[in-house]
Amino acid sequence: MTDVVIRALGTSDAELFDTLPDPLGAREGHRLTRHRPDWKRVALRDGRVVARGAWWGGPDDSEPVNLNWFDVAEGEEEAGAALLRSAPWQVELELNLPAGWRDDPALRAAADTRVTAARKAGYELLVERLLYRWTPAGGLPERPGRLQFRAEPDDAVFFDALRRIHSVTLDAHALKAIEQGGLDRAAQEELDFFHWCPSPREWWQVAYTPQGDMAGIHIPAHNPSGPCIGFIGVLPDQRGHGYAYDLLAECTHFLVGQGAEFVAAATDLGNFPMAANFAKAGFPVVKERLNFDPA
Fold this sequence. Notes:
31% of the residues lie in helices and 29% in strands. By secondary structure, it is of the alpha+beta class. The longest helix is centred in the middle third of the chain and has 25 residues.
């Protein structure tokens, strides 16, 4: 077997990226994603593409924020690992899979090939997530009408709320940030993401009970691929009332009011309460995601 050759692509040879089969439907999943040609890399054996990766970031980012398209031909796990190890950007890997992929032998085999390659390159699984997509076919979720929603211009209010919300959290990314830098880091990472999104700052809202107590926050957002539920969070002392559903319903209504024709969302696989709220609000699971941290 000949050695693998790793190549960075550009506008002149970007078509090489499309020569590898796509059993997991990544192309359709990235229909609204803009990948830069010079952030694509391939591994070739005897001139044939056996692994590929497309790194991704926002239009103003100087470096990728993640690797969200990674494919490996059957039996070419070492080539896939070499592609990952050789990349100049060691960022989080998102492996997006069709919903129910474990129940389909062909899909599971394709996923296992990619997971094996990632592990050989030193990547470690951080969390499994469920990806949702609301469309008008599901109907707008009913607003319970229990909370009052207000815009809040002061970032400090959101920072404090995020610290309190993440003091009791199931979110794997937040827990990782807390381990690395405490609640302040977890809260700041959320704020940085909200500001990174191209949607207006004025959309952020705080929810209050009729008695005037803060119940939580919700962030309607647009990421570069379209409208999404940026964040839903209930304060610890307000939990137990089902307010997460109220926040989700309001966030969905808000985005539709801004012209959204679909709304994307995600939650960790182990966050059963939030998954139940998405189901209640008419958000079907459309994909599953494995998030890996680089070595």
